[in-house]
């Protein structure tokens, strides 16, 4: 349940629940680089992703903090995903067979060079039979200073063909369309499909989304708490060519559905904490799809 062999032994942590169900976390950015259920990979990582310990890892689930998007003080999407995290508690098997590990990040010389605040983040991951749980706590230990931040789980789902995926829970929500200079629209579709370059921040979204036609044609439930925004992203053909650590032909096989607090900042007062969580669950319900088709 601990680390892998080779040169990456000190940088990779593996949760192993048995039955070929594992979760692999790279301490660089506390990036979840693999989630396998019954030996089937659920997350997309680019074949050109960099593992040099300097830039962010392209794919998986990366931790965006304290900034979403371009940042005049440092790297895009902040420093959390390009900083080495601490393994606070090594993988441990719980009484029900699930496996958990806890990671942490505190301010240091590197973070303070960009963002001069004290902070502490705890990141608890729990691997269940067909679920992966993410629990986040951000604490402000200062006695005097408040700070504001964005937080996002930049989640890349692996899919057979993004054009066949649909996302529920976005109907009626307003969204900021970053492909159209940040114009704001309202989503009129009952389910959202991606057929072009898409970069949208959906605001005040419900706690649950269902994504259809992920690995093996199954559905993925994403349940979130204290994340009011949902980002949907796919670079499509032209933008994929502009991204150096992303293959030109990889865009059909990934879909980003990202829980976050990004359209407005979190304001954290001295001595207080912010908590948020996400659960990703694979739905295996063969009968449901047949019932749904009969009802249409």
UniProtKB/TrEMBL annotation:
List of residues binding substrate: 58, 76, 81
Gene Ontology biological process terms in this record: galactose metabolic process
EC code(s) of this entry: 5.1.3.15
InterPro entries with a match to the protein in the record: Aldose_1/G6P_1-epimerase, G6P_1-epimerase, Gal_mutarotase_sf_dom, GH-type_carb-bd
GO-annotated cellular components: cytoplasm
Active site residues according to the UniProt entry: 154, 258
GO MF entries: aldose 1-epimerase activity; carbohydrate binding; glucose-6-phosphate 1-epimerase activity
Record pathway: Carbohydrate metabolism; galactose metabolism
Keyword hit for Glycoprotein: no
Keywords in alphabetical order: Isomerase
Catalytic activity: alpha-D-glucose 6-phosphate = beta-D-glucose 6-phosphate; alpha-D-galactose = beta-D-galactose
PANTHER family per the UniProt record, alphabetical: APOSPORY-ASSOCIATED PROTEIN C-RELATED, GLUCOSE-6-PHOSPHATE 1-EPIMERASE
Function: Mutarotase that catalyzes the interconversion of beta-D-galactose and alpha-D-galactose during galactose metabolism. Beta-D-galactose is metabolized in the liver into glucose 1-phosphate, the primary metabolic fuel, by the action of four enzymes that constitute the Leloir pathway: GALM, GALK1 (galactokinase), GALT (galactose-1-phosphate uridylyltransferase) and GALE (UDP-galactose-4'-epimerase). Involved in the maintenance of the equilibrium between the beta- and alpha-anomers of galactose, therefore ensuring a sufficient supply of the alpha-anomer for GALK1.
Protein name as annotated: glucose-6-phosphate 1-epimerase
Origin species: Glossina brevipalpis
